[in-house]
Amino acid sequence: VAKAGLIGGGVIGAGWAARFLLNGWDDPDPEAPRKLAEVLENARASLPALSDLPLPAEGRLRFAASIAEAAAGADWVQESVPERLELKHRVIAEVQAANPLVPIGSSTSGFRPSQLQEGAAEPSRILVAHPFNPVYLLPLVELVPSPATAQQVLDAARLTVEGLGMHPLHVRKEIDAFIADRLLETVWREALWLVKDGVASTEDIDEAIRMGFGLRWAQMGLFETYRIAGGEGGMAHFIAQFGPCLHWPWSRLTDVPELDETLVETIAAQSDAQAAGRSIRELERIRDGNLVGILRALKDRDWGAGTVLNAHDDRRRQAVLDTVPDPAEALVLAHLRVLPSWIDYNGHMTESRYLFAASETTDAFLRLIGADLAYVAGGHSYYTAETHILHRGEARLGEALTGSVQILMADEKRLHLFVRIERGPEPVATLEQMLLHVDTKAGRTVPAPPAILDRLMPLAAAHANLPRPEGAGRRVGERPA
Ligand SMILES: NC(=O)c1ccc[n+]([C@@H]2O[C@H](COP(=O)([O-])OP(=O)(O)OC[C@H]3O[C@@H](n4cnc5c(N)ncnc54)[C@H](O)[C@@H]3O)[C@@H](O)[C@H]2O)c1
User: Fold this and answer.
1) Is the pLDDT assigned to residue 322 strictly greater than 70?
2) Count of other CB atoms within 10 angstroms of residue 110
3) Distance (Å) from CA 81 to ligand 1 centroid
């Protein structure tokens, strides 16, 4: 078991503690038990969700009474005390007095490593390891060595950071505020001016980011995004087209260097290498799949751009509900499109999506009979007790599918449904389901109220006249008739 000495238990120190502990490191920390307990609780509820494997057994947390005690025997020290150089110098001196050779990563957002190394007993052991809040979820750590930092300390830092499931970004030259905060500072500065000049409110600025380019940045950053914006001409065309106009507003104010030909060539060449032979069309498809994934995650959380998408669905759903389907037929209730994230390694719709398609269909059916989200919020719902899926075809990327419901049987508590997932007239899958009406608080089945039964029973009576679907009541493994 490795031991991390974490100095400072504020926003960042507590985030580091969560990251180390949940990855199995032991962690003695001199301060801030309350903050740490709260941050750890959030981290335990979120970090494990990022992994498809169980995390290692959680490390042990000990609170040390002094910096010397925290540093003694540690394999790594992460310094996260307030952003004051003289304080950081004092902490580093105490750490090195207790454990001279331990690598020390500083969380500093702005000091250069050579500033941190001033007056240190062992400058070679010190580098910047700059994380991002929340440390337990965001992968980025900027590793900034100075010329005095030992290569083996940088290597150890890389291994440590990767061992915590994070992405080490080696910053090649030491500069104030490194890479990410330099970028953030320009956005922050412009945002403050926009508020000051009365152009935008704080909320307007946040919407401008999270409804638009923030979504692109999350998956392709800046250069790859603009490479695509250059169309088939790629990055070189993008710079030729937009470089000069991006240059104008600033050239009046400050002495911005001319965007010379060599720089344009360097950027275009680096962008080509980054694209690794992928065409603009391929990059667009990758981008689109990523954006759909991100937007759907936000939709599930009903947050940011996801709220816009949900509101749009709600309006359209109302319009769909207003067109009452013919009760004497199986009810076509869901219209689905096979999305990139639904496709498995065979290029077909992946197994779990058939159940998803069916649950979209049965959800629509439940809304039709009045068991909507408001009904669920009131403490009653239908739970699925059993499902039998029969695969009858393959769905592929981009295909339009419908989901329809035929009621096989309904009574006060039970709802026996037959769901068909079809591509045009062709069957793709059928799902036979038994749903039970439940009191969600009591956790047991109860009869549905008249408000539901009054809508359900006439449909069930009409469907009793439909032919029994092929495959209904089938056992797994039974030979087709
Ligand atoms: N807040 C951020 O988003 C962020 C992001 C990246 C890096 N950082 C950097 O992380 C460092 C810490 O920032 P923070 O936001 O966590 O600050 P914070 O004020 O939340 O936490 C500072 C912690 O250091 C402790 N502390 C103060 N004096 C100390 C001493 N003499 N010995 C030991 N511990 C001491 C405090 O009790 C507190 O627990 C700074 O260098 C900052 O630039 C912050």
Assistant:
1) no
2) 14
3) 4
Among protein residues, the one whose CA lies closest to atom 11 of ligand 1:
80
Span from the CA of 433 to the centroid of ligand 1 (angstroms): 55
Mutate to test the pocket of ligand 1, among 16, 80, 127, 132 (most ligand atoms within 8 A of CB): 80
In DSSP terms, which residues pair with 59 in a beta bridge?
none
Listed ranges 243-257, 332-346, 437-451; the one with the highest mean pLDDT: 437-451
Integer Cα distance of 168 and 140 in angstroms: 6
What SS3 string covers the chain? Answer: CCEEEEECCCHHHHHHHHHHHHCCCEEECCCCHHHHHHHHHHHHHHHHHHCCCCCCCCCCEECCCCHHHHHCCCCEEEECCCCCHHHHHHHHHHHHHHCCCCCEEECCCCCCHHHHHCCCCCHHHEEEEECCCCCCCCCEEEEECCCCCCHHHHHHHHHHHHHCCCEEEECCCCCCCCCHHHHHHHHHHHHHHHHHCCCCCHHHHHHHHHHHHHHHHHHHCCHHHHHHHCHHHHHHHHHHHHHHHHHHHHHCCCCCCCCCHHHHHHHHHHHHHHHCCCCHHHHHHHHHHHHHHHHHHHHHHCCCHHHHHHHHHHHHHHHHHHCCCCCCCCEEEEEEECCHHHECCCCEECHHHHHHHHHHHHHHHHHHCCCCHHHHHCCEEEEEEEEEEEECCCCECCCEEEEEEEEEEECCCEEEEEEEEEECCEEEEEEEEEEEEEECCCCEECCCCHHHHHHHHHHHHHHCCCCCCCCCCCCCCCCCC
Separation of CA 79 and ligand 1 centre (Å): 8
Q: Around Cβ 48, how many Cβ atoms within 10 Å? A: 12
Q: Kindly state the average pLDDT of the residues 74-88.
A: 95
pTM to 2 decimal places: 0.77
Strand partners, 27: 61
Per-residue pLDDT tens digits for 145-184: 999 999 999 999 999 999 999 999 999 999 999 999 999 9
CB 90 within 8 A of CB 65: no
Q: How far apart, in whole angstroms, are the C-alpha atoms of residue 357 and residue 199?
A: 45
For residue 250, what pLDDT band results from cuts at 50, 70 and 90?
low
- Among all chains, which residue has been given the structure tokens 């669905």? 313
- Tell me the CA–centroid distance for residue 84 and ligand 1, in Å: 9
What pLDDT was estimated at residue 191?
96
Cα 318 to Cα 301, 303, 322, 334, 360, distances in angstroms: 21, 21, 6, 13, 15
What span, in angstroms and rounded, lies between the C-alpha atoms of 463 and 325?
13
